[in-house]
Each structure stands twice: as structure tokens, then as C-alpha cells.
Specification:
By secondary structure, this protein is of the alpha/beta class. About 40% of the residues lie in helices and about 15% in strands.
């Protein structure tokens, strides 16, 4: 491949945390590793800190710190061609064979009710924060929490801190009410890995009015490769399903507001012929059948790069 890739979400840090024997350079168990990133022409990869629910609440912040340490010690330090990205200047300084890596937080469970913990993670380089995973925490409710509440009082404080530090607020995984509360409160928003509810009625997907709101905010949505969010089937989906969701966002006016957030290493089942980062080539080949070269370049890289230009506070 020669077209650049911007992938807005992967969970390889979680995999490295759960199994210390894995090697980021080449372990085949990893859907995202250095070999696969290079093979796919990935230029920017977002690396999420995701603390699983199995971790005791008292240990969640320590787990988040350990994942941040893995990012620096296992992803960045041994591989000088992978460069830490904290702002737009860092992206502009990347040379041909270098890959940019952005640290993100998926769910604020790790911070409890302590803004100091969030500030610490931001100081460690986190540039995008998802407020919840699927369920509720002290910040808000997730998409699968039956209560369906929005931002708490503490949640508003969290969003204010994100505004002050020009950190992007990720609305993937939020409850519907939480989404609309964030739209009112947050300065910078995006959906790292979400699909279209009108095509697949899963609560993790975005309804058309939510997609239109993100478009109106000049934001971007990362179509994700989770089969259940694409086809409604837990273990079966095709690249055609990916294109259906992308095309639907485009039909709502989102040609300049859609990209991809694979969720690699956060998924057990994969899209056929999209089993790892190196298989972005198969997606590229299909996109070329239906879209112009300019459109394909925007979907795979340009829209994310333009609208997620991270800026240091």
C-alpha cells in the first residue's frame, strides 16, 4: 500500500497488559503490531488505555499507569520509527518511514472521582478521553447502562478540564443522554469507533441525529470493524458492511467527517479479510471501486488528520 492510514482506535495496550509475554514488534497474537503497522502504511495510530472491568476499583488507576508505561517502554522506546504525537506539529515533523502514535483513554473508570488522576494521565500524554466504557461510572453512563443517565456533576468537571487542556472528548461508548450533554459542554469532540444505528440497531451505534450533530460540529466519526456493530451478527461481517456504514454517513453529509477506528485487539471476531492492521489494503481495494482517489484518501487519512489535529494546551 502507498495510501496513508489514520486509525482512531486500537486496544493493543490492553493486550500487552494482560499478557506481558507478547512482543509489540511481531507477536502474531496482536492484530496491531509494528510489522502490521508498517505493512499497512499506517501513518497515525491511536493507542487506547482500556482498564477491564475485572480489575478491582482500587487498582484501576495503577492499571492505567501501567498501560501508559507499556506505551512508552514497549511501543515507543524500542522502536524509534514510532514517534509520540502530542500536537499537530509532531504530525507535520513525521518523515516518510515514521509512524505517529497518540495515547488515549477509553473510559474514566480509572480516575474514580479524582481530577488529579485525570490530570496525571493528561500530563503523561493522553490527548483524547472517552468518558465511559459500556456501563456507568462517576462521570456518566455508558451505552449499555440501563439507567441511561447523562453527565454527572463530576462529569461536567471532567469535561471542563478537557476543555481547559484542549483535549478531545470521545463520545463512543456514551449513553445517548451522555452524548447530548457532551455536545453542550465540550469544546472538542469526536467518535473514535462507532457505526450507524439506522443500519444496525445496536446501542453502541450512533443514531442519525447524533451523526448529523457531529457533522455540524465539524467533527469526525470512525467507522469500526466490530462485526456486531456492522451486521448485527457477533462473529460475521464483510468489508461490504463496512462500506454500507461509511456510505450512510456520507449520505447524511459526512464525506469530510468519516474515517476508521478499527478496534483491533479489542475484538475477538473480525471482519472477513480485515483480521489485522496489514489488511487495510483489502479495504482500500474495495473503496477504490466506488469512490474517487481523493475521497478514499480522505476516508483513510485526511478527515481524521484534519479534524483531530491535537494541540498542546
Amino acid at each position: 500500500m502507498f495510501v496513508k492510514i489514520y486509525d482512531a482506535h486500537c486496544d493493543v495496550l490492553y493486550k500487552l497488559f494482560m499478557d506481558p509475554t507478547l512482543d509489540f514488534a511481531k507477536s502474531p497474537e496482536l492484530q496491531v503490531n509494528l510489522e502490521r503497522l508498517k505493512a499497512s502504511s499506517t501513518k497515525i495510530q491511536l493507542f487506547a488505555i482500556y482498564v477491564p472491568e475485572s480489575v478491582h476499583p482500587d487498582l484501576k488507576f495503577e492499571a492505567a499507569l501501567r498501560m501508559a508505561d507499556l506505551f512508552y517502554e514497549k511501543v515507543l522506546r524500542p522502536h524509534p520509527q514510532i514517534k509520540l504525537i502530542k500536537d499537530r506539529v509532531d504530525i507535520d515533523l513525521l518523515v516518510e518511514d515514521e509512524i505517529g502514535a497518540v495515547l488515549t483513554l477509553e473510559g474514566c473508570d480509572a480516575i474514580g472521582q479524582d481530577l488529579l488522576k485525570l490530570r496525571t494521565l493528561l500530563r503523561l500524554g493522553v490527548r483524547s478521553v472517552g468518558l465511559t466504557w459500556n456501563f456507568g461510572n462517576f462521570v456518566a453512563d455508558g451505552a449499555l447502562e440501563e439507567r441511561g443517565a447523562g453527565l454527572s456533576r463530576f462529569g461536567h468537571q471532567v469535561v471542563q478540564l478537557l476543555n481547559e487542556t484542549r483535549t478531545i472528548c470521545d463520545v463512543s461508548h456514551l449513553s445517548e443522554q451522555g452524548f447530548w450533554d457532551v455536545m453542550e459542554a465540550a469544546d472538542r469532540v469526536f467518535a473514535s469507533h462507532s457505526n450507524c444505528y439506522s443500519l444496525c440497531h445496536h446501542p453502541r451505534n450512533l443514531k442519525d441525529n447524533q451523526i448529523k450533530e457531529l457533522i455540524d460540529r465539524d467533527s469526525v466519526i470512525g467507522v469500526t470493524f466490530v462485526p456486531e456493530f456492522l451486521s448485527g451478527k457477533k462473529d460475521t461481517a464483510s468489508i461490504d458492511d463496512v462500506l454500507r456504514h461509511l456510505d450512510h454517513i456520507c449520505s447524511l453529509g459526512g464525506e469530510n467527517h468519516v474515517g476508521f477506528g478499527s478496534d483491533f485487539d479489542g475484538i475477538e471476531f473480525t471482519v472477513k479479510n480485515l483480521k489485522g492492521n496489514e489488511q487495510y489494503e483489502n479495504l482500500w481495494n474495495e473503496l477504490q471501486k466506488y469512490y474517487s482517489d481523493i475521497q478514499v484518501s480522505k476516508f483513510l487519512y485526511g478527515n481524521m488528520a484534519t479534524r483531530l489535529s491535537v494541540q498542546r494546551a
